[in-house]
Here is the input.
Amino acid sequence: MISVSGKKWEQKKINQNIVDKLKQEYNFSEILSRLIISRKFDNDEIATINTDLDLNNVFLNNKDFSQSINLVVNSINNNEKICILGDYDVDGSAATSLFIKFFEDINHPFFYYIPDREKDGYGATKKLFKKLILEKPKLIIMVDCGSTSNEAIDFLNDNEIKSLIIDHHEINKPFPNANSIINPKKDNGYREYDYLCATSLSYFFLDLLIKKIETEINISDYLIYVLLATVCDVMPLRKLNRLIALNALKNFDITKNLPLNTLFKLNEKKNKIDINDLGYLIGPILNAGGRLGKSQYATELLSSNNDLVVNDRSKSLIKLNDKRKEIENLILEEIDFKKIEKENKDVIIYYNPNINEGLIGIIAARLKDYFNKPSIVITASNELLKGSARSVYNYNIGRVIKNSLDQKIILNGGGHNMAAGFTLNKEKLKNFENYILEDFLKLNILNSNKFLYESEISSLAFNQDFYDDIKKLEPFGTGNPVPTFLLRDLKIIKSVILNNKHVSLILKSKTGFSIKSISFNCINTKVCEYLMSYKNNIDVIGQINENIWNNKKKLQLTIRDLIL
Here is the structure.
């Protein structure tokens, strides 16, 4: 089915025999069984539906973790000064904050550094280490960076400074000659955990380290930071990440976390926090500092218990985020979307030398969302070009960026499945474009403009029992999306534009059942055009959720697309 927005929708193919088997074995409902199968949950994941599972000692017998713990314990025992180097995004800031909390709690000498995007560039570099070694650290712990920093690590070795890398970005042989590396992508016996972000890996490392040195620190207090980083780094909410999400949300009291509580209050939010709050409210605010020249602010905020510091950094980051939004809108207005659409390339590569390099990532994300294609935005930075990439689920952009580095097409770069960053010489731009497009073609990826819905349902399924079954698979996010359904033959009874962004409406089925519905951020789209003027019955692609107003809960249908 081709929708009014030009998307091709298909129903997910599910083996009914497997559905029936799951229903019988676990006493699940039809819809819950179908959702579990469509997501390919394994037995461990199925067990999480009705049971809390332990997050302790996940990497207890892992050699990389053991080696890394011994490295840090020796530094602690010798009272050696330690430097924590983090990336300037939420994952880097959150991971750095965990280590700050730890070293403050044990009263060990340390300092930390978050690179400035423009002054320092991306990641752990020789140039940056020349500056950091002036503080005379004996050990540098790199979180969310370092996997491609071979030359920089060699520089540390030459200066007799030990190094530990805790990272999740792509890494190829020869590995950096660090004293120890924790990175599942090394494929050293724990590749199945390559969906974990750097903050997750740091959390599990610190959990084991705390037990090793026998201190009373409760690391679980900061599990919410792990979830924050997981969501903001677009890691799949599956397997261990799903357990992290379940435990973090269940046990978290926002009133006991000064930084997040302050951000909530300043944004006039209530105390209950969810996945959407982390991804769409907190994440962009924290990232604004790194995008607009205040890279330290997010870490200063997340790691502080001081009212004055937290209030100042919260307000500053909110202002920076408002400024980011303004600049972003101006950039998007300049982009010729129709021209890009007409070119019809498999990968969107947009070059504009005037874009603030701190915003190229978010512009790439917007292009990716609009065209549903891997998107790369490149800008000028002094004598070089800097780029940021965002990808779709079936194209590992981190891999291709790492390969282009190995082939010396780019100067520096790294990333993971869904996002990557890089630097290249201006004269290599065309070579880079050709390499990306050829790589995509070689993979023979199926048309990514295909969208899937779970199943067709009648208006009679629009009830609390049905919704309660869906909720058993929460929290939803990347890798575990909110279930999407097809409802046929609905008539638009009433439609109203809200805040010049959304459309609120009432739909009615042939049986006379009324469904309160909403289409978010649809103004100036074909969906909005039809919702406001179409007189015939429509088929709706949508999601069932709960609308809470004045402490009253009511089911509503969130419209994603229309089939005429």
About this structure: The chain has a mean pLDDT of 91. The CA atoms of residues 138 and 544 lie 54 Å apart. The first helix runs from residue 16 to 26. DSSP finds 20 helices and 18 strands in the chain.
